[in-house]
Amino acid sequence: MSVLDHHREALVRLGEESRLRRLIPRAGLDFSSNDYLGLANASELRNAVRDALERGVALGAGGSRLLRGNDPEHEALEAEAATFFGSESALFFPNGFAANSSLFAALPNRHDLIVHDALIHASVHDGMRLSFAARQSVPHNDPHAVEEAILGWRTKSGKGRAWIAVESLYSMDGDQAPIAKLAEIADRHDAFLVIDEAHAAGVFGPEGRGLAADLAYRENVIRLVTCGKALGCEGALLLAPAVITDALINTGRSLVFSTAPSPLMAAAVRASLGLIRAPERRTALHRLIAVASERLGVASGSHIIPIIIGEDAETMRIAGILQKAGFDVRGIRPPTVPKGTSRLRISITLNVEEADIIALSETLAQVRP
What we know:
By secondary structure, the chain is an alpha/beta fold. It has 2 domains: 26-40 and 279-367, Alpha-Beta Complex (Aspartate Aminotransferase, domain 1); 57-276, Aspartate Aminotransferase, domain 2. It is 41% helix and 15% strand. The protein is built from 13 helices and 12 strands. The chain has helices at 5-16, 43-54, 72-85, 96-106, 122-129, 143-155, 179-188, 242-251, 253-256, 263-276, 280-296, 312-324, 354-367, and strands at residues 29-30, 89-93, 113-117, 134-138, 162-167, 192-196, 221-226, 236-240, 304-310, 327-328, 330-332, 342-347. The strands form 3 sheets. It has a 7-stranded mixed beta sheet. The protein has a 3-stranded antiparallel beta sheet with strand order 9-12-11, with helices on one face. It is globular.
């Protein structure tokens, strides 16, 4: 028996269940990326990177932030991001996964409780697995369940602090969290509210500051903004009171023990923050969202439009037909989404035009049962 047999068998089972994943090249019209504002290939960011190279900004950091990897570009970005998003401080991570997993692994302690939405990002789950805190999942977008979880924990002699973990805009359903109600609950119970703005920043809020922009000043609110989606770059910004970012500098293992993000990328994100302030791209995107919602018959209220198919194999069959027709649409299956809810995740970006959306809707109508 080969040492690889177990893994081969697991892959075969995934294939039999129509859940085997493969890396495939990008091709066709972009209906799958998170490049919502079409900035990833924008000339403005190309020029910003070129200018940064000319003034001597390095590609690599050369070490962790606590060693020699702390570059002036990192600090400049963090200062500008804190000002732009209205936070006391900001901390730049290589990506959103590292930021979320580091936060939840490091800050809640063994006396605390993390109450998280059932559909929270996988990175939060990985962080919670490394945490000593208790954790409890609650039904999606149910503030009452959040409060009941905290009250029940207190009744059972919960002595620490509660942490409420949500996304402001959910990545697979495209719906918004009841942020105002959750903030009230956090205030009532002296809890932290951690809001992942990965799919909202740049697209929603004043000047693209996100759906929770009006909570930025609160000392019990921590926000995460990823730079690899609407901002068109790479990395993530954790926005919080300075005591929180200082704590992560000391205890966040993905920051302490990882090579720092590229200083060149920090310069690119700085340029992107300047670009998203202008309303033109957001206005154009919301115009396309309205067209897509009408043509596809699904109004999620955002640029993420789920077409629920249900069965895994059928989802991938339809996705394959759309891809062959020139539309880059991907099928999403469990465990990314709950069993029985496999779907086409239609992502509306400024990389397509209204005519492309109409063509997609017509093709989908032909191939969907």
